[in-house]
Amino acid sequence: MADSTTPLINGRAYDWSMIEIYFGFASSSEAIYGIKAVKWERKRKVESNYGIGSQPISRGYGNWTYTASIELDYATQVMFQEASPDGTLMGLGEFDLIVHFAHPDDGRTVTTTLQKCIFSEDGMEAKQDDTDLSKEFDLNPGGIDTLTT
């Protein structure tokens, strides 16, 4: 196996085709395929602390923040609305969203769980000559956990 300093020739990078996404509210453990995009971000506040002079003397660490969104095709959005008690995405309540990468060449897997997600909006977008309707929704996660095996 090549180390990180050796360039891969004809190697394979992680790509969209390796992703499977599972929703905690879905009635089965099957992957959902009507997803156009997913993104998430973890941030932690980090600030330099100053004393005498103009150079930092330490660092202070603040809160973690989490953001995530998902772009759904309209058929998947309707499927989720039908699973909701009130017919809206918001009615689904909190759920975990599991994003799983399985690399076919090196056997590694990366699983990221977007914890305690909740939809805060519902709606759709369409315009003339659209051939594939989709919309991006904020997921408002309560945490993000990644496991590599």
Give a structural overview.
This protein is mainly β. The model has no long low-confidence stretch (mean pLDDT 89). The longest helix has 10 residues, at 74-83. It has one domain (16-148): Pnp Oxidase, Chain A (Roll), CATH 2.30.110. The protein has one helix spanning 74-83; strands at residues 19-23, 35-50, 56-73, 95-102, 109-117, 134-138, 143-148. This is Phage tail protein.
CATH hierarchy, class? Mainly Beta
Please state the CA-atom Rg, rounded to the nearest Å: 20 Å
- CATH architecture tag: Roll
Measured as a percent range, the helix fraction is under 10%
> Tally of extended strands?
7
Can you tell me the overall shape? globular
List low-confidence stretches. Answer: none
Biggest β-sheet: count, sense, barrel?
Answer: 4 strands, antiparallel
| Helix/strand order | EEEHEEEE
**SS strand fraction:** 35-45%
Query: Whole-number average pLDDT?
Result: 89
Ends apart, CA distance between termini: 16 Å
Class based on secondary structure composition and strand pairing:
mainly beta
Give the count of structural domains: 1
Tell me the CATH topology. Answer: Pnp Oxidase, Chain A
User: How many individual helices?
Assistant: 1
Main sheet: which strands, in order across? 1-4-5-7
